[in-house]
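Entry:
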Amino acid sequence: MKLETIELSAVIPGSPADVFKAWMTSKGHAAFTGAPATVERRAGTRHTAWDGYIHGWVLAVGAGRNARFAWRTTDFAASDRDSVVDLAMGRAKGGTRVTITHSEIPEGQGARYAKGWEEFYFEPLTKHFEERTAKKTVAAKKTVAAKKKPAPKRTR
């Protein structure tokens, strides 16, 4: 059986540390995808996403904001071996460049998973960090406004 490989990347408006934490923690992953997930930053642990549709194993976690996963969906045939997802993050103008190299995909499924990475990962991850940035900006403006208020006059 022939296998496919796809590579995609996007710039996410957050720091590499924050984006990696969102991807590699159960709480963070569920927050940006909007669906239950389990993941740990430790090799040998099980991961799930999208309420179990995606599942597999964390194979490696690198110090440089990299991770490797054995990855499959419930759409894989029982005879299909796990595919491999390599996740890499690095600084980029405007935030963090997230690159996904997804290999050993069953033949004919690469385009579908490329679309899925865009629609169900890059788009919600971008939105998640844009909303976080907007909330921080509003909070900062409130703090500045509070500091600018003149002190009330005292009356005797």
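Residues 3-137 form a domain with the Alpha-D-Glucose-1,6-Bisphosphate; Chain A, domain 4 fold (CATH 3.30.530.20).
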